[in-house]
Each structure stands twice: as C-alpha cells, then as structure tokens.
Design brief:
Blueprint lengths: L8 E2 L9 H8 L5 H9 L3 E3 L2 E2 L11 E4 L4 H8 L21 E5 L3 E6 L17 H7 L16 H5 L14 E7 L2 H13 L3 E9 L11 H9 L5 E4 L5 E9 L7 E3 L4 E12 L3 E8 L6 H8 L20 E9 L6 E5 L11
Parallel strand pairs: 7-14
Antiparallel strand pairs: 1-4, 2-3, 2-4, 5-6, 6-7, 8-13, 8-14, 9-10, 10-11, 10-12, 12-13, 14-15
Helix pairs in contact: 1-2
Length: 351
C-alpha cells in the first residue's frame, strides 16, 4: 500500500462526528481498525494541523493528513505482525512461561506475571508471546458474543487487550489483575483512575540512594531552578522520598521515555529497605501510572534499576523491578483485597 498517496483527505458528510479510527478503517480496509488506532495514537496523523487520536470525532470538511516526517516508522509498522482481530482466536497458541494464578473467581483473576513476558502485542512483540494470547488460549476472558472471545467491549477490542485493566512492562514481574467481563473491567479501571487501586513495587537500584540527602543530581537541580512549578523533590522525616516531574516520550529514542518539561506530571514515592556499598533495595509506590515511570525517575536521580540497560542500568539477567503487592476493591462484593506475590528478587543482584 502506498500510504503516502492516501493523504490528505477531507471528512465527508456521511463521516460527520464518526471516530477517526472508524473512518480510516472504512476508507482503507486493507488496514484493520485496531491498527489504525495504534497508528493514530503514535502521533502519525493530524486533523486540522493538530495531532489526532483514534477516539477523536471529526466534523465534515476537516482535513486528515499524514506527518510525512514519520513516514518511515509508519511503513515499518505496517509490515509488522497482523492485528489480533485479523487472527482466528481459536488457533492462537501462547508461546511463553505461564503465569502463576494468585487469585481467581468468576469476575477477575490476579496473576504473578513472569519477567520477560509482554502484556500485549507491540512493535517487535508477536501476539503469541503475550499474556493476551495466554488469556485467549486458556479461555479466561468471558465473551458477551457467543463463540467470539474478543468481542466483549468496544474499547477493549479496539486496543487488542481483552481483559487487561493495567499493565506491567515486559521486563517487570509481579501482580496483575485481569477482568473476566466488561463490567468488572469498567469498575476496576475506575478504581485505578481514582487511585483506590494500586500496586507496590520492589526495585534494586545501583548506587546509594541515601546520598540524595546530601547531594542532588545537577540535572534535577537545574530543573528545580528553571521549572519550579513542575518539579519537586522531598525527603520526609519518616524516610519517604518523593519525586514529581513531567514525563514524555523521548524525542531522540521512541523506545524510551524521559523527564521533559512539556510532558505529563508523574509522582513516585519510595523508601529504602536495605542497602549495600553499590546498591539499594527500595519499596516503591506510584501516585501516577505513566509508562516506564519508576524506571525513568530512578534513572533521573542517578540510581538506575539493575538490569535496566535502556535507562543506564548495569546488565543483569532481568530488570530488577517487581510488583509485590496489588490492592483493590472487588467489583462485585465490595471487599477490599490485597494480593501479595510470592516471588522474591534475592538478596543482592550486584556482586
């Protein structure tokens, strides 16, 4: 497909107030709606010269254009694995380590995700190697349309993430809750948005975090001076460290996120559990849930997570970040639940 030849185009009357991803899928059926949604949310298209999103509803006469500077990444994307909705779920087979089930009932399931397993498909990650494939193969997601495991919620289907309420990075292990039906998905998602549900993490980092009581990284000092309304760092009397910065996708490397003044605000809290001469073991809690938030913040402070080579950590057999506790309110019973992972990260990843 010569994608560049398809743009720009103008929204016609029959498309008035339709979602943009639906318009694109209707006009260009060679690419599925779910893939158009992913392309839109990567910032590859514009409406009326402004960045467009998949869920955006457009008016008659609006121009939809392609950001030609991003054309190479777009062509590469279109050559990747077919979208999940283009596969036959009955023939999908999971290739990876099966997660341990920590809790399960008719509404939801909490699993202990292994490190190295992606939650859902993405660039370079085939669907067969993700937890979504395991959920479909094991029939853990209840369908509201008999015979079709995927069609039980518009937003879930569009994102190709049936049952997924929140995510963990591929290299991160630990507790993850799965919704078995749409109502459970909605209520759990609302809890994460309202911060009545959340996770606690362990992180092994390089260096001595206590040194932050004496000396701050120069880049943090600079940001505190230049953007005082967006940056904050605090150490409480009880030993809790807190860092608040804006985060955004790194313009120099699309695989990374970075501390950027124009990004979205993110706040991370952590305490020291144990330390050695070259490492510190932290207990971490997120106030917000931005992509790679813990990894970026700890690296920004000069104490990257062991094994997290993307953010400057020393090589290890895995990223030493683990979601050890998950808490939420059961969407049906109203019971407060706290699920603890039995996985341990060991005493010291650095010799």
């Amino acid at each position: 497909m010569d994608i560049e030849a398809l743009f720009p185009f103008y929204v016609n009357e029959s498309e008035h107030l339709m979602r943009l991803d639906r318009i694109l899928a209707t006009r260009f059926p060679d690419v599925s709606r779910s893939r158009w949604a992913r392309l839109l949310d990567e910032g590859l298209f514009q409406v009326a010269s402004k960045a467009a999103k998949a869920s955006q509803r457009v008016d008659t006469g609006m121009q939809v254009s392609l950001d030609t500077a991003k054309l190479p990444s777009l062509q590469k994307f279109l050559e990747e694995e077919p979208a999940l909705e283009e596969r036959d779920p009955k023939n999908l087979r999971y290739r990876g380590q099966a997660p341990e089930i920590l809790f399960e009932d008719e509404d939801l399931m909490v699993i202990d995700k292994p490190a190295g397993v992606a939650v859902h498909a993405g660039a370079g990650v085939p669907i067969e190697e993700t937890l979504v494939a395991w959920l479909i193969q094991e029939k853990k997601v209840i369908s509201e349309t008999e015979g079709d495991l995927l069609k039980w919620g518009t937003e879930v289907l569009e994102e190709e993430r049936p049952g997924i309420v929140h995510r963990l990075d591929k290299g991160t292990s630990g507790c993850l809750v799965i919704a078995k039906h749409l109502e459970a998905h909605r209520k759990l998602s609302e809890q994460f948005a309202a911060k009545t549900a959340g996770r606690l993490y362990w992180a092994w980092v390089q260096g001595d975090v206590e040194k932050l009581k004496v000396t701050l990284p120069l880049r943090l000092v600079k940001h505190l001076e230049e953007h005082s309304l967006k940056f904050a760092f605090r150490i409480d009397h009880d030993g809790r460290y807190s860092l608040s910065t804006p985060l955004g996708r790194d313009p120099k490397n699309r695989l990374r996120f970075a501390v950027l003044p124009e990004g979205k605000q993110a706040t991370t809290h952590f305490k020291i559990l144990k330390k050695g001469p070259e490492w510190t073991w932290l207990d971490v809690k997120l106030e917000t849930g931005r992509t790679h938030q813990i990894r970026v913040h700890l690296s920004f402070l000069g104490t990257p997570i062991v094994g997290d080579t993307l953010y400057g950590g020393r090589a290890h057999d895995r990223i030493m970040l683990h979601a050890h506790t998950l808490y939420f309110i059961h969407p049906r019973t109203g019971e407060k639940l706290q699920i603890i992972s039995p996985t341990q990260l060991g005493q010291s990843p650095i010799s």
